[in-house]
User: Fold these one by one.
Assistant:
Number 1:
Amino acid sequence: MWKFIVRRLLITFPQIVLLSILIFLMSQFMPGDALTGMLDPNVDQSTIQEQRERMGLNDPWHIKYANWVSGLVQGDLGQSFRFKMDVSELISQRMENTLLLGIVTLIFTYLIAIPLGITSGRYNDTLLDQAITGYTYVGFATPLFIFGLVMLFIFGYQLGWFPTSGSVGPGMVPGTLDYWISKLKHVMLPALSMALIQTVSTVQYLRSEIVDTKQKDFIITARAKGASESRVYNRHIFRNSLLPIAAFIGWEITTLIVGTVFIEQIFGYPGMGLLFLESINMRDYSVVTALVLLFGIAQILGTLLSDIILSIVDPRIRIK
Amino acid sequence: MEIKNVQMEAAKAENPTALRILWREIFRDKLAFISLIFLVLVTATVYGISIILDQDEIVKVDLFAIHQPPNDEFILGTDYGGRDVFGQLIIGTRNSLTIGFLVTLMSGIIGIVFGLVSGYFGGHIDNAMMRILDFFNVLPFLMIVIVFVSLVPKYNTVTFSLIMTVFLWMGIARLIRSKALQEKELDYVQASRTLGSSHFKIIFKEVMPNITSLIVVTMTLNLAANIGIESGLSFLGFGLPESTPSLGTLLSYATNPQTLESRWWIWIPAAILILMLMLAVRNVGEALRRAADSRQRRG
């Protein structure tokens, strides 16, 4: 198993390097550089050229890339010209919101998936199972952004149960209990919308996993020993079916990243996804570059996490 | 002579081609059949009407007709630029479908060739090609496409589809590869090789026809996904420009709270249409998937 993990880690490193090169090259095509936005229009051209030379903006691309990477490693992501502040600081402000959204979504995803998957697998081909399967079928076909809009329309505007935008109510003092309650209230609807769509693949997987396990020999043995029905399901089947679900967590991160961009836009939730869209529209490219890199690394690490969990759970994968 | 003919005909009846089986399965599955008719009707309608409709006329801003609710002149009212929502719905559906088809076709061709070559040759070639695929797979697709779209100064339906294709061929490539890996171990491939057939001939004339059903199924299901992705990008404002509306463009107007709350005619029809289209394509795809797997066939 360790051999697999080490080999898998060895693949990850070049992936991150390639990703950073790609993003760097992309950033070279974006208009403007570190100086744009800081300049006074009255400064004359020769001074600008001098400054460019000093900042290394005229160097060939591989040297610029090396400089960029060494900056990244030290946590220097450049300057945002829109906010006139360090990109790293700007992102860390927003990251808290996105992390909260992501975690609450994950909790909801599993809170919905596990009971539905178990019921559907245990009582397969009953009316209840058909209803759950119908939900996953429609859920698969529904684009997240349409569902988000509909949820906002119904629960935000028509029923008014939840706030319709922002991440916290106005005039809240950070750190107080009210502040956190208000934050939770704001995150509830976006997270629920995302979870209801995202959970369908897990429900389906859990269901087919349980239906498969039900027919295995060790379940017949367990029954023959006289284990009660609930014991058979709760201990023998559930445990064996739950492990593959654990591996989903890494992939959920990938879908979460894409999901947050849409959901934050719809619910006006100030997280990293919304920051990304705002920065692209404002042509604030240093922020864009940093965010694409961060999302990319998160995605690579998510896949890594899934593969490792899967190799622990399923020995067949290790041999490959 | 006659006996031979009869035998041949019997053989034909016993071994219908893959496409025939797929067709029969759809025909037997009522939901899939209705979905297929719905898709054909919608496609015919939007392409038919949009020949008569003038796109430039539809997207022309008319400030005297802003936000009109549905009335006699505008069946589905107007948007914030006084543009006819019904006309945009038709043109938008056409554009979304066109991009969906184009992306599915292009990513399909790349994915099939890549997967077949990788799986057929195996070994080092397969290994190298899979590393390339892995790399594309870990890219943050949505963000990179958005950055691309905002950097490319001018693009149209075709270039936009190309940008999407670059990041969407991996799924089908992986699937075809794993099938090709199994297929190349079969006797007919070895036999053909012994007879001196070229690799090219074996891959595209012998292995590929044998996995037709898998290709058809995957591409159908991809079509639904691609329509969703396109409308999602347009929704965020990084699809086609507003002068070339898509279904997502109409939905993007709903990010304005007032439109979302009180001007249902702008976004609800588009939302319903996308949902119905995606469900219909999926119904057809699922029926095809059952047909491709002889254990699950109903007919």
Number 2:
Amino acid sequence: MSVATQEATPAAAKPAKKKTKRGPEHRPGLNRWLPYLLLAPAVLAELLIHIIPMVVGIWMSFIKLTKFFIANWSAAPSAGLNNYKVALDFNNAVGEGLLKSFGVTVAFSLITVALSWVLGMAAAVALQPPFRGRGIIRTFFLVPYALPAYAGILTWNFMLQRDTGAVNHVLNQLHLSDGRTFWLIGSNALVSLIVVATWKLWTFAFLTLMAGLQSIPGDLYEAASVDGAGNLRQWRNITLPSLRPVNLVLVLVLFLWTFSDFNTPYVLFGTAQPPAGDLITFHIYNASFLTWNFGTGAAMSVLLLIFLMIVTGAYLLVTGRRSRRA
Amino acid sequence: MRETQGFKIYRGVVLTVLGLFVLVPLYVMITSSLKPLKDVQGAFSWWPSNLTLAPFVDMWKTVPLARYFVNSTIVSVSATVFSVAIAILAAFAVSRFRFRGRTAFTTTVLSTQMFPGVLFLLPLFLIFVNINNSFGLQLVGTRLGLIITYLTFSLPFSIWMLAGYFDSIPRELDEAALVDGCGPMGALWRVVLPAARPGVIAVAIYSFMTAWGEVLFASVMTTEANRTLSVGLRQYSTQTNIYWNQIMAAALVVSVPVVIGFLLAQRHFVAGVTAGAVK
């Protein structure tokens, strides 16, 4: 079914596009340059803040950029592939730290994305049929997303304190623990990170999936009901396939966001991160700004970029191939 | 979907569990902001037994919160204004003109959204330091540097969403304006923009939220003079004391405007996200 719509759309869209071509472009001269003029500010801003720094960053990863050369970086000596060798030598401290941080980040991202998606889907489906109070609940669920990230994380930081926090208090009252658990240091740090990140992220999954559900025609469900399909089967055979394009984008975006999450560890732990909560962005940040070794930091950033590009590329390739087969 | 008994139970369970998940931190934030310092330094209690508004008064004195507020407001408002203006122009070009490099532009801009900030942070910091050294234009430790940086953060999403909005406005309207003697810019100003107002509002709120909540670049690019709220709130943790009640009060105060703005515009967001996801 999705194949049919994909084929239909370009064919239907083409004549409409042709018609507009006559629109503002029927006067040559200025109008030929106008679109470029309109784009110029955006291009300039993107160049200055994103493109040029990215190129500079790649170049930085090949030079020996320590704090002596910050003001006069063109004088920094070349390092060849040395920064990469240091970052990837898993037998020394720097490389080992990066590898561990990478492992923590992979675990953190996979669990957080999965949890956020499940919670978002559960809520979106629960709110699919209209009922009294639906609008209010929907709005309420969006509050964690609307809140400035640091405000929500600070609150969690307070709740996760060992002696004064709400989390230990509740666990103690429910007799699930003695109420003296450390959440922000030691091995529980990863659990804390996942809970806090999910708290904020699931509402975005919810928002997106809810929007996707609205575009599924109701008669599909009616027809399935007539055929005797239960709710669970309707979800599997109608909801899930219809949401496929939404899910493809959503999961990728969630993954890229969580993988480069900086706010959660930074606000939760400050600059003293526990090894179990040492997410990669935070690790690179500390490696660069605490030790002022920008060259190695830049090499780590480039490695992160390459990894994310490979994951994105592989993801698009696999999902693209599967949808063509379907 | 039919509302069977089973579905009603499912709905009840899901909404209760998730409702509590969302509610508890908000509740803790609000009630803790109403407790005296000794109550947040002892064991946690659900009910504030000594209600006080003192944290909302004291929070302005413990740290220079007013200054952080001014900094955040100036930075976020300026970044929003420039970002929206730039996005409107770019989206108009993408939506109404067919020109060479159009696809290259949209793909490049969208893909910059995907890359982690830490990638740009180090080089951008060095570029700013060097601009300062060669041209005397100070960008690290000033509001200007933050404004320039932040305005690009929301740009990709804004362009994408506005282009979608503009696409949905019938071109016959532009053409009518052109026939009436408007130039293309006049058509944008008099016809397209008024029709796309909900989209512009949604994009503006998104840009503001992005700038208001940014932590990573603020933690490197700010000094005491241009410190914004996102890093300023850390100052409540001193060597001797952590003023949790004031932190919660300040967090509440900085959140309220953004949350209200977002919730008012959420309809447009849902529309924008759907349009994007379906494309």
Number 3:
Amino acid sequence: MDTVLDAPVKTFLQVTEFWVPEGDRLVLATGNYGGLAAFEDATRAISFAKGEGLPGKAWAEQRPIVLKGFDGSYFKRTEAAAEAGLTSAVAIPVFDGDALRAVLVVLCGDDDARIGAIEVWSELDGLMMLDDGYYGAAKHFEWVSQHTHFPRGQGLPGGVWSASTPMLFRELGSGYRFIRADSAGKAGLTTGLGLPIPVPHDRQFVLTLLSARGTPIARRFEIWDARPEKVGHETAAILTDGICERDGPLWTDDNDTSPRRVTANQGNIGKVLASGLPVIVSGAPTLTEGYGSMVALPIYQHGAIAHIVSWYV
Amino acid sequence: MQKLVVIGAGMASGRLLEQLIEADATAYDITLFNAEPRGNYNRIMLSPVLSGEKSYTEIVTHDDDWYAANKVTTRFGEKVISVDTARKVVVGENGDVPYDKLVFGTGSSAFIIPLPGHDLPGVVAFRDLEDTSAMTEAAARPGAKAVVIGGGLLGLEAAAALRLRGMEVTVLHIASHLMERQLDPAAGYLLKKDLERRGINVILEAQTKEIIGNGRAEQVNLGDGTELPCDIVCMAVGIRPAVKLAQDSGIACGRAIKVDAQMRTQTPDVYAVGECVEYDGNLFGLVAPLYDQAKVLAKTLLGQDDSFVMRELSTKLKVTGCDLFSAGDFADGEGREDIVFRDPARGVYKRLVIENDRLIGAVMYGDTADGNWFFGLIKDGTDIADMRETLIFGPSYQGGAQADPLSAVAVLPPEAEICGCNGVCKGDIVKAIEGGAADLGAIRATTKASASCGTCTGLVEQVLSVTLGDDFVLPTAQPICGCCDLTHEDVRRLIKTKELKSQEAVWQELGWKTRNGCHSCRPAVNFYLLADWPLDYKDDPQSRFVNERNHANIQKDGTYSVMPRMWGGMTTPQELIAIAQAAEKYGATVKVTGGMRIDLLGIQKEDLPAIWHDLNQAGMVSGHAYTKGLRTVKTCVGKDWCRFGTQDSTGLGIKLEKKLWASWTPHKVKLGVSGCPRNCAEATCKDIGVICVDSGYQLSVAGAAGMDVKETERLVDLTTEDEVIEWTSAFVQLYRENAKYLDRAYKWVAKVGLDWVKETLADPATRKALVERFDISQSVYQHDPWAERAVPSEAVKFQPMADLTQEAAE
């Protein structure tokens, strides 16, 4: 494996952390703070009750939440975030049926250089509508997205919604729902990962991560399928799609080569399969495909992990 | 160098070039024509390119660099006008190319239904990148609508992709269910439902009447009067082999270019491969047989023998989230039976078709995990009679549930010790891996884990696998049995590391696949537990072999043998009288054994407690002739009697036997003590042998005189009896703590290496600790099992369950 790190880039997501329920509170499991030590220290000192702070709110409201601007909000680490230059956050609850397994939180800074998008779409009256999103400096794309909706099967949100599976779109600048695509192209957005966010109630949520070349959310994306329909009775996952700046396409044509397969506890994806929790690894490039860090997020269906999406930067 | 000209840069000819160049890059000077202005790309992945889930660059198989590197002259974007087989020349738009060998790889073209309006702009097929680009462009208009004619594989992939692109899509299909060639009606129903859930409108039994529009396709009209406005029409109703050039060139064609099993046409030096060929009356549309053909043709071109063989094919649909599989023949027929499984909640449908105890067809929707297994059964014609009842549940049901072999190691904390020899913890190994150690050799070099006795090798490899994922290929190891995927060594190590002190803990924490083990693993686990945790774990007689349960050796006639212990082979007249009386009383046959003991054969099971009681009364205890434990210590008479004797070999033998008796070991342990190198006690073929010499004692181990015959190897030379007893006890304890169950000492030493044994025992502290642990174990287990079972409350267990000789009362 090539473990030589590429030149550091300014990443869109500056902090990634996940919280797990312990009794009636959410406690920090692990996080990648990208050198924001003071914010990390502030984080390690706290936990959240249901409804408290951003992770607690995602737990209580049973939905992904985008929070832009911390001042005066329910965000608990406002001061430390301000000092670290963090201005927005997204909390993504990981539900297994009714049970909360974890809350993944990503935090972003606000400047004119960071372009990307992390969006939450939800179903309303038979259409996927933008719930909220954080776009950094991609203001026009933000405006266009706010005025776009997706029927079933259309575009990344509609496709994920109808297929109940994560999807990875390339070349965002061409195609899907013309105006948004055109704007995405102009904003420099290249790759889009969409994933269903199952919650205990009936409402459908789709999370999208749209990555731009200059300030990537990730430089490698992977989608793993762990459904028994696909992998049999073994606790395992196969790599069904993926793209990497260095390795190129990660999918295989199964007429030629079987897809990569990992079983429970085999590497980072195996760790997600075994623990049922997200995984965040940083500072060990040999374990993260040569990149500085990685995040792997499980998506549950029918009482078990159905898919795992992972991104590396 | 011979000149090879290939017409068509499709997937079949692309694979041909790969095979040919890989086998002999200097065999041919190759020229490749392609009418498309590009080289070989993975055409079957055009659907995800259309949907946006792949980019074109991702599906390019051979780029310009590949052709340049392999010295293939490309004539892309240039049509071949004709082939002159008499002159052996290919005539291209830009000039002639002579050939020695010519390959047609012209593929196929889409079949366009000659409807009114079929030739309007905006009517496209779905065959190449141009078609894909045309559809992508059409999708970029607001509110764009598409009509896809054809509900087969390609049409449905196009429909799903166009929907993702944002179009309103209608699929028209002439049959009563979708993909009727690959699916039965039930699976077709589920597929239609799935597509409709994506917002795709599906019209079955559709009679397409015409395509109309003002200068381009704007509407499709059906026979029943339905009007479907559209911006683009995708015609995906089938393919036709592209053979016009071949026909015009005088190559023999039927429905396609006729080839034999070596892919030769009927024209000398002209070959064909791919969708443009007809073999034995068959045409080809799926990629698998094309690759087979390419392989055969490469060999043919290199003058090697090979033949194309038709094989069963399976089908998959490339629509994300739509899981479908079909293979074989699933039409109804006489003598055919169906096995059907449905799960309405999960949208799963599986149907297997069986004929003459063979699986001949499989259709699956929603759950395709076992598709390849079923496909294998179909291809191999496997007799499925024995698994018929459970066949539908797939291979894992046939073999029991699958466990996770890595789970035990994965949950170990960083401080858990993996390598006992060098005190290396899991965390140390993980750190080394993070630092770049990616294989066993590197771990050994950086941490010393697994570098000594090696019994933790399996665990170290599992830590590598857990940490590196599939970048590390876990070697196949022999599992303890079918109940668990871990090896004996791994189980032993994990019992220590995870401090597992009961069978239940082992079953649970090490992922046993059975409720409580089997006849093979239970005795091993029982031994490992009692050897490692003598104070915490209680020996489980139910986990022992029958001889150990009954404390006597069962014989071929169902009776038992009884052998009292004679310390060092010494006995007394009183003992002999007691033995003689017992023999007479219980009708025993008397035999002197090779280990210098007296064996009483032919004892009934119910008499065992009584004879044990009688022998106990004379001061004798069990000789453990039936155990995986200390058997006998054979001695010579030593210096008290023998003219050559150097030390008191008998006395030392007695001391050793009194120290070691009743200890459980991985396999039986036999000792010998000879008073001089003449070795009358045959000590040098025992598990442990002592040869007395003038200067002291030569202690050697790992001998054998059974199925294998092996001389012992010198462990150490010692000067006192106490040292011999200490070293022997330490060796036995080391063996008890480390060996695989049922490995005799010589086998274990061969695995871990005598050097490691020597090094370990040479350390006084280690030796002392081993002896202490042995003594602790003996404090629990060194007692006479006969005495315990000779009491009435236990003796009753040796009585027959019922007297079957009596007749029932009427």
